[in-house]
Amino acid sequence: MLSKEKLESYWRENRSLMFLVLLIWALVSYGAALISGFLNKIVIFGFPLGYYMGAQGALIVFLLLIILYAKSMDKVDRKYGVEEE
Amino acid sequence: MVDRNFAERLRKVYSIYTGGLILLLILLYIGERAFGLSPTFIGYVFLFGTIAVYAAIGVISRTGQVAEYYVAGRRVPAVFNGMATAADWMSAASFIGMAGALALQGYNGLAFIMGWTGGYVLLGVLIAPYLRKFGAYTIPDFLDARYGGKLPRFVGIVATLIVSFTYLVAQITGVGIIASRLLGLPYEVGVFVGLAGILVCSFLGGMKAVTWTQVAQYIVLIIAYLIPVTVLSYKYTNNPISQLSYGFALQGVEQKFAQLKEDPKEKEVREIHKKRAEDLKAKIAALPQSWEQGKRELEEKLKAMPADDPKRAEVEKQLKDYPKSPQEAKEKWTDAMKKANDAAKPPRSYTAPPADAKGMANFLALMLMLMLGTAGLPHVIMRFYTTPTVREARTSAGWALFFILLLYITAPAYAAFGRYEMLNLVGKAFNELPDWVQKWAKVNLITIKDLNGDGIVQFAEISIHPDMVVLATPEIAGLPYVIAGFVAAGGLAAALSTADGLLITISNAISHDLYYKMINPNLSPSTRVKIGKALLLVVALLGAYVAKFKLAIIVELVAWAFSLAAASLFPALVLGIWDKRMNKYGAIAGMVVGLTATIVYLYLSRFKGVELFGIKPIASGIFGMPLNFIVALVVSRLTPAPPEKLQEFVDHIRYPKGAIRAGAEE
């Protein structure tokens, strides 16, 4: 059993990670969509950047975010000794 | 515990399966080329071949055990759970419809691409690991345990049933359409062939059988999706990786659009559409007289014709298709007027975002609803109960999204190529159109009419059905029929796997949540599974019965399901995990207000023409969802804190291991 303080600090770390992940999540989807008219002026290999973000870019970031969160939580779990066997 | 030997064995079995699939494709290809196998024969091989494999998996995984029936024994490794979730999630709409919608709508269609993937971030971070730690079977289980009492469970059951059943009917409709296209059977027969295919997977083995068939179905659908577009990409650019190569098509499309905007011939056709829209408007205004007059004119025309006039059949058909009542005429003509009005507008840039603030507001709202709805859909959440550990539930969300992305980042390539090919038709003479156009014109998936009578195709003269883009790509790429048949089998796999996941969710909600937990808790485990199976059969038949009518409203209902889930279940789940102070009163008040507000806006915007801030019916949860959160937070702070036992429960689900003892895994 962990102490109450330890548990609370575990949850605080989890929460700030969650906020970070959701901030990036919102920026690459909603943020990029809002300025996509501007981003479209940048064209790479035929892809207007604004369109590309919606079609593929944001999706790849979503995947990276889930991986990042899972990996970081593994570390936090071990740090507080609440990981599963 | 993650069982390594088990995972190793699974990998071996599915590798052999994939090899067998590719072998079958090669054999059929040789059969088609060397022995001239007919398309219908190949269609039957694919339909019955794939369904036989799914059925075999279903039989092998048959079970009478409760934990296996409801959560596949909780030993599905993250990678395989990811594949099963991807197949569960991607329906016929993702497989066949999405790329086409994107091709027709351009940037606006991206709301679906981002919306249907972004929800997995929310699932993986906010919901899945905690529900897995809780370790029950369903969402109503969670609502009951977290908020205490039967009322939260009941609200959860109702929301689950509404959302899942409409979705199920849409899938069975999809199965019927694909089966009838693949084999040339009547639609109703297709529905029941498909129904058999759905039941063989889920009936015997519940969640366990569904999971392992869904993995097999994922493999079929992803290979089928990737082959045609890869070949087409290689044909255009010598680069087989379509996901990287379609930039040239985007540029080509944009250049052509700029030309077409000013083209005098295009303007001429657009004028014709505009005139048609005005005529229809006048006719609608003059109802019901205009309806009677139109009918009389047709009848008189037919009477005046000699019996051997070759044009007679055409007029007879017109008369047969003529609206049966002034009410039907109003609907049909309004629809036709909208289409004509759209066709009268100059083409919009393909890659540019919505130009006005209202368009952008609807785009963002729709995207948010699709994301939150995804994270609140019961049949998706259920899948995360099947992983062995909390850690695997987190990784599983990643694997699920990975396998979904293989299809989703390919869809924009399909769309761009489809649009590009469509524009290549422009300027061609009507008598030199490629074969695939003729073929798909026969089934009305593409319509090209020489409206201005100049013998040349104008862009405004082409209208295509969204399904066309994926279905016609094998032929556009010059591939043999085997591949076209395989694509249909892929679409079938997508629809079957989603239907199975939904069927399990619905029958569990009734047998486990409603009957066992609320009405008769003294059932033995084996009776529980038997009741579950009986209900499965009933729900499947009911779904097929409703699907038989092919109601147009079903497609809309599915889109609404996301708004409903986002405004009801999503906030209750998130607050239950992340807000310890949230109590029963807050959660229920929130769900009721959120659901009511969404339904009211849906009704007003769909049927009464109300529109706030440019929000269309499809995104109507954008008002109910935040209301749910606000009402829940306010009400919970004004009412007593949840009892200590429930607060301990929250602690229990927040930590992967043992920090606090409370609640028990079944």
Describe this entry's structure for a reader:
- In chain A, 79% of the residues lie in helices and 5% in strands.
- In chain A, a hairpin with a 2-residue loop joins strand 1 (43-44) and strand 2.
- The longest helix of chain A has 32 residues, at 49-80.
- Chain A has 85 residues and is mostly helical.
- A two-stranded antiparallel ribbon of chain B has the order 1-2.
- Chain B starts with a helix and ends in a 12-residue tail after the last helix.
- The radius of gyration of chain B is 26 Å and the shape is globular.
- Chain B has helices at 4-35, 39-60, 66-71, 78-89, 92-105, 110-134, 139-147, 150-183, 187-202, 206-237, 242-245, 247-262, 264-285, 289-304, 312-321, 326-343, 357-376, 378-381, 390-408, 411-425, 435-442, 468-476, 481-519, 525-548, 553-567, 569-578, 584-607, 621-638, 644-654, and strands at residues 446-448, 462-464.
- In chain B, helix 5 (92-105) packs across helix 23, helix 8 runs antiparallel to helix 25 and helix 26 (569-578) runs parallel beside helix 28 (621-638).
- At the A-B interface, helix 1, strand 1, strand 2 and helix 3 of A face helix 6, helix 12, helix 17 and helix 19 of B.
